[in-house]
Amino acid sequence: MRYTRPVLVALIALMPLVCMPAVVAAVEDKTVINVGSKSFTESVVLGEIIRQLAQAEGLQSPHQAQLGGTRVLWNALLAGEIDVYAEYTGTLMQETLVAEKLTGLDDLEQALRARDLRMTAPLGFNNTYALGVKDDLAQQRDLHAISDLRQHPDLKLGFSSEFMDRADGWPGLQRRYQLPQQDVRGLDHDLAYRGVASGSLHVIDLYATDAEIEYYGLNVLQDDLNYFPAYHAIIVYRAELESRAPQVVRALQQLGGKIDAANMINMNAKVKLQGDSEAKVAREFLAATFNIDTAIQSESVWQRFFRHSREHLLLVLISLSAAIVVSVPLGIWAARQPRVGQLILGVVGIIQTIPSLALFVFMIPLLGIGGPPAVVALFLYSLLPIVRNTYAGLNDIPLHMRESAEALGLPSAERLRVIELPLATRSILAGIKTSAVINVGTAPLAALIGAGGYGQPILTGIRLDDTGLILQGAIPAAVLALAVQGLFEGLERYLLPRGLVGNAI
Amino acid sequence: MLELTQIAKQFNGSVALHALDLNFAHNTTTVLIGPSGCGKSTLLRMIAGLVQPDSGSIRFEGEPLTRDNINDLRHRMGYVIQEGGLFPHLTVQGNVTLMARYLKWPVARIDARLQELAQLVRLTPDMFTRYPAELSGGQRQRVSLMRALMLDPDVLLLDEPLGALDPMIRYELQQELRDIFKQIDKTVVMVTHDIAEAAFFADKLADSIVLLREGRVVQQGSLRDLVQSPAEPFVGQFMTAQREPLEHLQKVLR
Ligand SMILES: Nc1ncnc2c1ncn2[C@@H]1O[C@H](COP(=O)(O)OP(=O)(O)OP(=O)(O)O)[C@@H](O)[C@H]1O
Ligand SMILES: [Mg+2]
After folding, report:
1. Is the dihedral of CA A223, A225, A231, A232 positive or negative?
2. Is the separation of the CB atoms in B199 and B209 below 8 Å?
3. ipTM of the predicted structure?
4. What is the mean pLDDT of residues B182-193?
5. Low-confidence ranges of chain A (pLDDT < 70)
6. Is residue B239 part of a domain?
7. In this structure, are residues A448 and A67 in contact, taking their beta carbons and an 8 Å threshold?
8. Which value, in Å, is the radius of gyration of the alpha carbons in chain A?
9. CATH fold group of domain A2-22+301-500
10. Domain map of chain A by residue range?
């Protein structure tokens, strides 16, 4: 019976692979438009607006919300993994395409065309760095533009540390406007808002459409010397949409100039400060602006929990079982062929040192976004402990034990199966346990490339500064880590032959 | 039965065995003895095919050992080492019947052989389900011997089979082991440190003791030969160095 155990383990390990196609499928439909957004509220709201516009045109439009930053979205757009997302002209011109030294919107449009991308006209707001003062102070001192500050050297300034340090932040601003203020300090952004509300600070830096602008009753000073680069919101999309879904392109073009700064601040505030869903805010905007009525299906807390659980479990199960199926043979190979072994251990070790976000971004051109690249990344991260422990477990079998098996006249493959692998069981299982914990611990990051799971509520919670939401992801993830550990401990009790329990060989 | 011709072995440039010739005749017991590191175990491991000689050849009933036939020939040799070499994850029964099961013997035949061997080495069947960790050192060596004898091999290779046992058990097992060897007709090659043990096992006329030193055969013969006509002074030194056996020696010679 004992001989059947390894087979059994292999079967258990392979089982989740059967579920793989469920994750891999789900793309490739001509009438689908994939919408993306970055992991901050404004981007998600704009993503929802795009999604609902497309939906109103009768298309299926899944929204990959809060992906892990500009790199991820830009690469996903180029790779065709998403078709459209909201971007800022400044981000494209100052960061993504900075090497091309673009100087205006026409330049930018040209550069996008060269990549088979298109952009809409600016939506109507410029989410750049800005300076804000309280409304009453602005009226008192008659402050409308940044140059007005020159007449008031007594004002206290408080800036986020990033803004203080960047050459294009405070130092440059002071030089351009010849600002005389002496009392300038660096502090946390949230504290700055509270400081200006309480009156202990007078002028702070902010993004022009921050939700807090409305909440704290702030006035945004006009950049009358055009110091800050423009961050006009635009929508970028793949050129093929023009033939594939012309009605959607038309709808997107209509958004040009329809969202002004006050409008955007208001929408951000509704989500961040009043707790409305992005979908609801987007729907209200479309109803008010275009008279479009879109049905939004809302998920209950439990439905969402089950969806995240399913996504997360699938990520972990598939990547971990694939890692087991691959690493154990790799470890055996390494133990049998010392030279190949060094190579295998080296490569697997190097993989472990690649930062996860870098690995995700690297994989977008190959595997796109969503489940598959996340599974592959988690799979790669799970290799090292199992390979190394399989290798060590086999190598640590005492020579006299190995020779006893050989002297019996058992062929090499049989020795491996009935003697060496069972003797290495404890070490191999320890490696699998380590991998499982690393895997479960890394899986939440998969939400950064749209693979969902418990990372989703964690990301949203961080974005909205909502501890409850963070815990909705963090607690199940921790419980899962414990459960997986427990599962393998149970498996060890079942798999480890009595003769090996409690005593080393 | 076993013919070693000019076999030599070096490990990382240091010589473990100089080219040596040895013959082990059918149904005789040959005891290899000599100071630690003189190459006894290496010689035995070479016969079992665990170590490849750098030069020379080993023949089993005239057939040279090769990579291709080694596993078949191993089925005709039993190998027992000092630590027993039992697999800790298998029960007594699992250890003993491992090879027979691999060779797909019928269950009835395996059971019959198991019972027969248990009787031979005086183990009770209730031990069959125990794991090696649950056995005493003496019991472990009995199980090792059962495993080595399972396929009824022609040759038994024993590397200090009693070396790890305390003197009482060792004495008891010596007697039993010799009785066992008398019951079965095997070519036995045994390594020991103990000249008395060597004399005790190599007690038939055809048996012999082989004294090795630094990878060379110093002398081959009966105990009487070694004592009465030592080939070189080292033989005498080696005998006197073993004080405790000298008492036995006198008994045997009387
Ligand atoms: N695998 C190996 N690698 C390197 N050197 C080895 C190896 N096996 C044996 N030797 C060396 O070969 C020589 C003979 O070793 P061997 O084990 O045959 O001695 P022995 O006569 O059995 O000694 P002991 O009575 O202590 O068991 C020793 O010098 C030993 O260090
Ligand atoms: Mg030895």
Report:
1. positive
2. yes
3. 0.89
4. 89
5. 1-30, 296, 502-505
6. no
7. yes
8. 28
9. MetI-like fold (1.10.3720)
10. 2-22+301-500, 35-124+231-290, 129-221
Question: Encoding tokens for residue A352?
Answer: 């472990």
For a mutational test of ligand 1's pocket, the pick from B38, B52, B157, B159, i.e. the residue with the most ligand atoms closer than 8 A to its C-beta, is B38
Atom number, ligand 1, closest to the C-alpha of residue B212: 21
The domain total for chain B is 1
pLDDT band at B33 (very low <50, low <70, confident <90, very high): very high
Q: Two tokens at A385?
A: 């402990």
Which residues from chain A sit within 8 angstroms of residue B94, using beta carbons?
2
Helix axes B167-183, B137-149, angle to 10 degrees: 20
The DSSP annotation for A453-477 comes to STHHHHHHHHHHT-HHHHHHHHHHH
User: Would you call A134 helix, strand, or coil by DSSP?
Assistant: strand
pLDDT at residue A169, as a whole number:
81
State which residue of chain A sits closest to B49, comparing Cα positions. Answer: A407
A375 neighbors A23 (Cβ within 8 angstroms): yes
Q: Which top CATH class is A35-124+231-290?
A: alpha beta
CATH for the stretch A129-221: 3.40.190.120
- From CA A63, how far away is CA A251, in angstroms rounded? 17
Residue B149's pLDDT is: 93
Pick the closest to residue A368 from A27, A117, A63 (CA basis): A27
Contact indicator for A211, A265 with CB cutoff of 8 Å: yes
Q: Is A295 exposed, middle or buried (0-12, 13-18, 19+ CB in 10 A)?
A: exposed
Closest residue of chain A to B47, computed from CA coordinates: A407
Residue range B16-38: mean pLDDT, rounded: 91
- The 10s digit of each residue's pLDDT in A293-336 is 777 677 777 888 888 898 899 989 999 999 999 999 999 999 99
Nearest CA to ligand 1 atom 31: B37
The two three-digit tokens of residue A438, written as one number:
């690393």
pLDDT tens digits for A369-422? 778 888 998 999 999 999 999 999 999 999 999 999 999 999 999 999 999 999
Cα separation of the two ends of chain A: 22
Structural domain includes residue B68:
no
